[in-house]
TrEMBL record:
This is Vacuolar iron transporter. It comes from the Eukaryota. The lineage of its organism: Eukaryota, Viridiplantae, Streptophyta, Embryophyta, Tracheophyta. Its main location: membrane. The chain crosses the membrane at residues 54-74, 109-131, 138-157, 169-190. InterPro entries: Ccc1_fam (IPR008217). It is found in: Vacuole membrane. GO terms for cellular component: vacuolar membrane. Vacuolar Fe(2+) uptake transporter. It is a multi-pass membrane protein. Belongs to the CCC1 family. Keywords: Ion transport, Iron, Iron transport, Membrane, Transmembrane, Transmembrane helix, Transport, Vacuole. PANTHER family: FE(2+)/MN(2+) TRANSPORTER PCL1.
Length: 194
């Protein structure tokens, strides 16, 4: 009887997901996509506050996407490589051998981070790209970003088995705040000609 119970427990534990491990890569993917979405949209809103030209808004958003993706990739590469060095040193101290398959890949982490950032950044760029009229373009960017923020918040919560409504609301209000502050401060500076 005890043997059957132990087998059931082992079977259950092998099929149960480890949400703490899943949270590590999930956090990086959601953070990267959300960062790309919010920073690019905020940059475009800030530029849009003082320049109504669609080309200027798209160009600034594209430059923000490229710069952000590069920054995220380099930051992730350096961070994971540091972790890699620490783990190699620890393995050498403990057993004298380095088990490569257990080590994180700095290049994979950098590529994933850049890709996630770019995936988020493309949302406001596409929303603004085909709209000539200024006010409609601003509304289109805010609407597209709103939908994406809710989806990212919901996706992160669902995959991590956390409360979806609270997570989506937190992500949504944070994104709105970033866009509003950037738009407002840039408009204020533009009006007073600093």
């Amino acid at each position: 009887m005890d043997q059957e119970r132990n087998m059931d427990i082992e079977k259950e534990s092998s099929t149960t997901l480890d949400y703490s491990k899943r949270a590590q890569w999930l956090r990086a993917a959601v953070l990267g996509a959300n960062d790309g979405l919010v920073s690019t949209a905020s940059l475009m809103m800030g530029v849009g506050a003082v320049k109504h030209d669609v080309k200027v808004m798209i160009l600034s958003g594209f430059a923000g996407m490229v710069a952000g993706a590069c920054s995220m990739a380099i930051g992730e590469f350096v961070s994971v490589y540091s972790q890699y060095d620490i783990e190699v040193a620890q393995m050498e101290r403990e057993s004298g051998e380095v088990e490569k398959e257990k080590l994180p890949s700095p290049l994979q982490a950098a590529a994933a981070s850049a890709l996630a950032f770019s995936a988020g950044a493309i949302v406001p760029l596409l929303a603004a790209a085909f709209v000539k009229e200024y006010r409609v373009r601003i509304v289109a960017v805010v609407a597209a970003v709103t939908v994406a923020l809710v989806v990212f918040g919901w996706l992160g919560a669902t995959l991590g088995k956390a409360p979806a409504v609270r997570s989506s609301a937190r992500v949504l209000f944070g994104g709105w705040l970033a866009m509003a502050v950037t738009f407002g401060l840039t408009k204020l500076i533009g009006l007073h000609g600093l």
